[in-house]
Design brief:
Oligomer: single chain
Helix content: 10-25%
Structural class: mainly beta
Number of strands: 21
Strand content: 35-45%
Order of helices and strands: HHEEEEHEEEEEEEEEEEHEEEEEE
Number of helices: 4
């Protein structure tokens, strides 16, 4: 009898607890979260030190990862920023990790924005508008965002240290565009040079290395006199990690790339080159390259390694037709300054048409001598006057032929 009573009491407690949990769950599901909108606006504004407002309606779906739905969202920029808003959107839906939030980390695995206006700015001292705290130089206050979905909107990016001010417009294609539905156009300046770009990306932007997979990207950009066309994929847009793309690059001088990329390259005539570009960790690898430098053709591979204290550029280039003038600085040739009253191509003491610095290729013995303006750089010598040229396989008139 006693045992039966104990079992009955335990069963009643279990049923009561289950009923309480059901009532609590139903209460949370149907809780009118919008009544907390104003208190949440005030609390968040106080924490980040700038206005935060869900302007129309708030809803919350609780779970291991909680989903917040905001009808109208405005997050102001700090007072030092050029644009008034970090984010102003017609609607926003984002997942947030509450456990991480309890220890001060802002983890947002997914965020979807409707008609957003974004104002991003970073100062030389490390302050950035997207650091959500009173100390905008704290890297710990930068949200860890996994994926971003947008429909159409605008973005402003300002970085004084990089002399960058870029305005971007983007929108989802009205009709199906395959795996590249999001189109963008941007104008402004980068490294102080005029900048324009257009292209398309996947509909879901992956901003974290922790998100599996990659998203496709297609871009056509012009910075100053340097143009780039590329198509491929990337796994982490924020860190430019996992790049795997084909590219076509052209400009008036390779040394202009230093200002844009930080990679030191020699001064050259106008160039065009295409190939594939892959990033593996801190190594950028450009392979299968084919192109021209001035009147010379080039092919091969280059690797830019940033893993050491001092970055290093290495590679192997080859040419079937090489003009010394095109790569003079690379092989130690010095460009002579033109005399007063003369041009770089002709002086009173030297005719414009000069003999080729000529070495006979074994397969071309007996080839008639030719002349070409400027083919030998500043010296103007030819094979008969240049013993060092004799016997060197593959050299003809300042150009190298490879069988």
């Amino acid at each position: 009898m006693k045992n039966s009573l104990i079992r009955t009491t335990a069963l009643q407690w279990a049923v009561g607890a289950a009923a309480l949990l059901v009532i609590l769950a139903l209460g949370l599901i149907f809780f009118p979260w919008d009544v907390l909108r104003q208190p949440i606006n005030r609390y968040v504004s106080g924490q980040i030190g700038r206005p935060f407002e869900i302007t129309r309606r708030l809803d919350v779906h609780l779970g291991r990862t909680t989903t917040v739905i905001a009808d109208g969202l405005e997050i102001a920029n700090p007072g030092w920023a050029s644009k008034p808003y970090l984010l102003k959107a017609k609607a926003a839906e984002f997942d947030i990790n509450l456990w991480a939030l309890l220890v001060g980390r802002i983890q947002i695995p997914r965020i979807a924005l409707t008609e957003p206006q974004l104002g991003l700015q970073v100062e030389a001292d490390g302050r950035r508008t997207w650091a959500l705290s009173r100390d905008t130089s704290s890297k710990g206050a930068v949200p860890d965002i996994g994926t971003l979905l947008v429909d159409r909107g605008t973005l402003s990016y300002i970085d004084e240290a990089r002399e960058a001010a870029i305005a971007v417009q983007f929108s989802i294609a009205a009709e199906s565009a395959g795996d590249l539905p999001l189109a963008f156009k941007s104008t402004g300046k980068w490294k102080g040079e005029k900048f324009t770009a257009s292209g398309r990306t996947g509909g879901v932007l992956k901003l974290s290395k922790d998100v599996d997979g990659s998203f496709p990207l297609e871009i056509d950009a012009l910075v100053g006199s340097t143009s780039l066309k590329a198509r491929g994929s990337i796994t982490d847009l924020a860190e430019l990690a996992g790049v795997d793309a084909t590219f076509a690059l052209q400009g008036r001088n390779l040394d202009e790339l230093y200002k844009l990329t930080g990679v030191v390259l020699p001064s050259t005539p106008p160039y065009k080159v295409r190939g594939t570009l892959v990033r593996q960790g801190k190594r950028w690898i450009a392979s299968q390259m084919q192109g021209t430098l001035g009147s010379s053709d080039v092919s091969g591979q280059l690797t830019f390694d940033q893993s050491a204290r001092v970055a290093m550029l290495t590679g192997k280039l080859q040419s079937r037709l090489l003009d010394f003038e095109d790569l003079g600085p690379v092989i130690g040739m010095k460009a002579s300054a033109p005399r007063a009253g003369s041009s770089a191509t002709a002086t009173p003491a030297q005719p414009a048409r000069r003999h080729l610095c000529r070495c006979q290729h074994p397969a071309r013995q007996g080839t008639a001598a030719r002349q070409r303006p400027g083919a030998c750089g500043s010296e103007g010598w030819h094979a008969a006057a240049r013993p060092a040229c004799a016997g060197r396989r593959g050299w003809i008139g300042g150009r190298q032929h490879q069988d």
